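[09:14] KT: can someone run the structure on this one? pasting the chain below
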Amino acid sequence: MNENYVFQVEKEMSLHPLYCKYTFINDLVFHTYTFITELLAEENSDFRRLYDRFQKSERTITHRVIQDPVMRDVLNKAFGLLKKGKTEKIRLYNKILDYTISILDEGKQIGPLKSRMEKIIYLGSTDSSPWIWFINESNNDIIEKHFKTLFQNELAAGTDPEPILVMPDEKTQKTLQYSFELLTLLLPDLSKNVLPHVQMIAIVDTLGNRENLFESASTNDIPSTIFLSRLVVDNPIKTAEAILHESLHKKYADLLLIKPILRPGYSAQTSRPIYITWRDTYWPVDRVLAAFHVYTYLGLYYLQTIRKHEFLSPELRKENEKATLYKHLFQALDKGFYLGDQLIREGKEELGSEGKNFVRWLYEQLDKINKLSRSAAFTE
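[09:31] RB: done, structure tokens below
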């Protein structure tokens, strides 16, 4: 296998200026939310205070506040009310705005939810790295209550077994840290440009049958956050995959915010349905594209895990034999090609101008990974 070619493929999939480079995407997301805050400031005095505070703060501080899961959700919901002309209801968020302004006035350079953690544990070496949900004794204050309500309404309700937020024990923390480091070893450029789309990682468990609990989850309705179950954090290879998988969904959500990936007026409810063979169900085009995006990158992840298998610890090599990794690799590739083909044949009318280009670009990357993977398997 041509090592330099693999390196170039990762570079392309990490640093493409339109679809991948975090600094580019983040700049546009930042300007979008700053503009939303300015619009809300014209209708609400507390948003005016927050906007004025942003104008006086360093950009890095404003960014941390805007990307905070609770703050970003408040901005999304308040802007939704503004677009519907329900401006009087924006005041429902005044207490959260008051609290956010107060912690900034105290000199805390973080967002509201992050400020409520009993201890801030970063995955990575900088204070811009994702942090872990760490609340043991519930105070049920307005910030914590807002996030828990969001979690209950958008993820827990209707899920069987029902997940609950838990504080990670030391073993789980170590697995998360090791998995994060593993990702940066396997895919250094990709890690720098995908993982920052996540602000918080929350561990979930259940009072029901743990074996039926999802391994990982995220939703566009809970910003900047991914959820991992205690089931998945026993194996660093699986944990690293789950972190990458859900982080890619967060990156995709940011792309949808700043680019015409889907056609004007697109609705998942009226989207042309695409049949998903391995689920025996139909998905709307936006979900198909989200999955196509993820499986393309999971192909790269498993290819790199196989290539660098010898650098893993003996225990990890035993738990994750090459034959199993190849199975996961080719499953990701097969699903990726199926989804890409369906988007090109059946879903293209639902895509915006950038969406069509994005699908073509992803398909090109998938084809490169496939050729490298077949070559690697043949030479084993």
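[09:33] KT: thanks! The longest strand covers residues 200-206.
[09:34] RB: yep, looked fine to me
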